[in-house]
Design brief:
400 residues; 6-stranded antiparallel sheet
């Protein structure tokens, strides 16, 4: 018995015949299985296939839920792969998921130094991940606003912190994009991923010009491995049990103009709380950018925060600072804001005792899939690149 409503978004072949799944063996006395008519001018389309509503007293395990999904995905009737023409088919050695620090680095190393064909599928129009650069229209000076504040800027000026000549980290990704060329597809959405026993992949993506099929021998995933991000990848029971244990922090970062005086940085503390940490959600800091009237900020929350809620939080804290006399009254405007959730990925101590990290690292190479990114190593560029350098030879060897 299965106490949940289950909906499938599937690529289905249009048919007027009823679709029956007798192998599910669902008890009719405690459930309903409702079928929906499909009507479209296109031969293949995405539709909700079934809605499953059982008795409230029954119980279902995550494994049982995944089992139903796997059965439906495996059905040749409702999940028949479309035959793509050659013009809409891309064949590569490695498909890379993620366009940030480790994804871009991996794509360059594999294609330029290790002689492998790669494809990076990206839903945005730029590489860079959490690297965000704002070009001030007044001074034409760049501000990297994820981690850069006055101490880092002072280190850059003195030459002890390596960066580009214009102090613009996004230039690294612009150069990488030019180097990778057609190996990066922008403005795309992953539709489904089909994993085979031999580790190869058939990946359907929605592009600005229509559906395309990517055939890849191996998969390298560099995005945060939380379940919401991994829905298209048909996780097996072991993968699901590992990734479902993650906890993480919700984090926004951006820039305000005005509101805080130049040459002033403010760090939020709570004097009467453990480690002086404020109650979530809170603005972590307003840091002077080095450019008059521009301050970077970041917000922290232990629960999900919408963009609107985050903007309200920022404006409220600035108002409190001004009303208390901490800073002079001055209009503040949020110039740019980005969601960097999830960060600080972690698991409870009990999970570590039970072998979480052994189970996590044992996933490398499973089903032809390899992993890197901030969930696998400390969130520091040098350490992440070093970790990735240990993964790439494993990917190459798996191609042999």
């Amino acid at each position: 018995m299965f106490p949940f409503e289950l909906q499938f978004q599937l690529e289905v072949e249009v048919t007027t015949e009823p679709i029956l799944l007798p192998h599910l063996n669902i008890p009719r006395a405690s459930s309903q299985f409702c079928y929906h008519t499909i009507s479209t001018r296109s031969h293949f389309c995405h539709h909700t296939f079934a809605s499953f509503k059982p008795a409230a007293s029954s119980a279902a395990t995550p494994f049982q839920q995944r089992a139903i999904s796997a059965i439906v995905n495996a059905s040749p009737i409702i999940n028949k792969r479309r035959d793509f023409p050659a013009a809409d088919t891309i064949t590569v050695n490695i498909r890379i998921v993620g366009r940030g620090l480790t994804g871009t680095y991996s794509a360059v190393r594999l294609s330029q130094d290790l002689g492998k064909t790669v494809i990076v599928i990206e839903k945005s129009n730029v590489l860079g991940g959490y690297t965000n650069t704002f070009i001030d229209p007044v001074t034409n000076f760049p501000v990297d606003y994820r981690n850069f504040s006055l101490p880092q800027l002072e280190s850059i000026v003195t030459g002890s912190y390596p960066t580009t000549a214009r102090y613009d980290n996004s230039e690294l990704y612009q150069k990488a994009a030019a180097l990778l060329g057609s190996s990066v597809l922008y403005g795309n959405t992953l539709v489904r991923t089909e994993r085979h026993i031999n580790g190869s992949y058939y990946i359907t993506v929605q592009t600005p010009t229509g559906l395309k099929l990517i055939k890849a021998k191996k998969l390298l995933i560099t995005i945060p491995p939380i379940l919401d991000n991994l829905t298209p990848f048909e996780l097996d029971h072991h993968e699901h049990s590992v990734f479902s244990q993650w906890q993480y922090t919700n984090y926004y970062t951006g820039i305000i103009r005005g509101g805080i005086p130049a040459n002033t940085s403010i760090v939020n503390t709570a004097a009467n709380s453990p480690l002086n940490i404020p109650t979530s959600p809170y603005v972590l800091h307003f840091s002077y950018s080095g450019i008059p009237n521009l301050h970077t900020f970041s917000t922290v929350s232990t629960s999900p925060q919408t963009l609107s809620q985050t903007e309200t939080l920022i404006n409220s804290d600035i108002s409190l600072l001004q009303k208390s006399g901490t800073v002079p009254a001055c209009r503040a405007t949020i110039v740019v804001i980005n969601n960097h959730t999830p960060i600080q990925m972690r698991v409870p101590a009990d999970s570590i005792k039970k072998g979480f990290y052994s189970d996590l690292y044992a996933l490398q190479g499973r089903h032809g899939t390899f992993w890197t990114g901030a969930a696998w190593a400390p969130d520091d560029s040098s350490l992440l690149w070093e970790f990735t350098e240990g993964i790439l030879p494993l990917v190459v060897k798996a191609l042999e």
